[in-house]
Amino acid sequence: MTDSLTAEMSSNHCLLTIGELVVDWIATTKGASWSKPDTFLRSPGGNAANVATAYARLGGQSRLVAKVGSDIHGRYLLETLGDSGIDTRFIFETSRYPTAQCYVLTGEDEENIFFNWPKPNACHQLTVKELSPDMFEGAFALHATGISLTVEPRSHFVIAAMRRARELGLLISFDAGFPYGECELARKLTREAMSLSHMIKVNLPELIYWLGRSKHEVPPADLAKSPTKPGHLDILLSYSRDLMNQTGAHVVLCTLGAHGSIVVTDQKEKYYEPLRVKSLAGVGAGDAYVAAVLYQLSDHYQKLLALPDGPRRHSVLLPAKMQAQAQKAPADTTVRPADILELDWDQVAVFANATGALATRTVSASAGLPNCAEVAELLNKR
Fold first, then answer.
1. Reduced to 3 states, what is the DSSP secondary structure of residue 28?
2. Distance separating alpha carbons of residues 314 and 339, to the nearest angstrom
3. How many helices (H) and strands (E) does the chain have?
4. What's the pLDDT tens digit per position in 255-272?
5. How far is CA 96 from the centre of its chain?
6. Of 33, 131, 190, 191, which residue is 20 to 30 A from 252 by alpha carbon distance?
7. Are the CB atoms for 169 and 195 separated by under 8 Å?
8. What beta strand segments (E) does 256-373 contain?
9. Cβ–Cβ contacts within 10 Å for residue 355, how many?
């Protein structure tokens, strides 16, 4: 990371992502049995890394906070992410634990199977004492995931970082993806993370899981099989709004895989149709989707700051150095967190759907991530 790039990141409003960073080994042939695939593609992976990479590919500045081992896999990740333009200053190294790796198989039914190894690993070892003010410098938003809350001590680091980011006025984005068999502490921390978040992203099974309902108008399996069937979509829209109301978030994003996505805000709830591309894999599409939403929000944020009243009315998004100024604003300009939603969500959702679709062009979770020109080209073909 050069001094000039570091200075540029500090002066811009970058996206801060924290948590998962692994080496993905993705089987290049289908087969749910470990005895079948014998060729694997190496790729940087992990939810936090995928979002940071997708955001950078679109043209934004991203910073990743994670931990790797002092080994060949850790060096590979640092070099590859650095080459992608990601700020890696807060990717810590440890000689006590190896770099995390994830083996990915895809069955004939297109469902992915993940095997994480070894346990424990360096990725799990982020500690609260490693939290520093410099991590938040120049950031407009923090993004974290439920996966990062399933292992200690990293889970407590992530929650501490989210609390601090909230205090500093950053936008909090959270992907509520979660291995359902995890312990009660992990579920409790994930619910706290959702309560700290302005924007929550879920897929359909996660949406149903976090609502915690024992009875449904339609069996969850039927909803998953045909989410856009007449009547099913109305149920999913209402479920998304229920999750927003339960958590106190201002936006809920529900991705439906190849069926599109749902956006629910205080002002609207709407389904957005998918954009079709030739897909080779489903790994990383959700991360690309949420990165695209955050990229659009960043652009909106910077436009707001250019307005005469921007720093006062929209201080929910401001870095710490501007908070004092915002707090001196007259009573009639009280900051409303929902001010972040004053943008064209139709445009945001369609852009995100296109980005997520293009991410599936390759087997790798990162190689297929598009730039803005590629997204625009796909949108122009609609």
1. coil
2. 6
3. 13, 13
4. 999 999 999 998 899 999
5. 28
6. 131
7. no
8. 261-265, 269-272
9. 30
